[in-house]
Amino acid sequence: MDRPEVFGAVAQMLEETLSPEQISGVLKGNGGAVRISHQTIYKYVWTLPKDHPHRRALRRRGRRPRRAKPGFINKAIKNRVSIHTASQSCQPSQAVR
């Protein structure tokens, strides 16, 4: 961030735990004298060390991966038999010409 007046305003709002989208909207709503996009604020925040207070002020930490429920597939069909151990009559037939 090249402009110190913008940096000061952004840093103060980050300390108040405003999101980059909110900061961008506030600066745009104040007569539009100072404008900065939320992407620029995110770029600034991600250049900071992980333990910096401005970086910790962001609400979301990223998406967590979904965890599979234990035994989910086994509960789908009770008493199921693998196709490898099924009888010959259950095997798929060959194409008829």
TrEMBL record:
Q: What is this protein called?
A: Transposase
Naturally occurring in which organism (per UniProt): Rubripirellula lacrimiformis
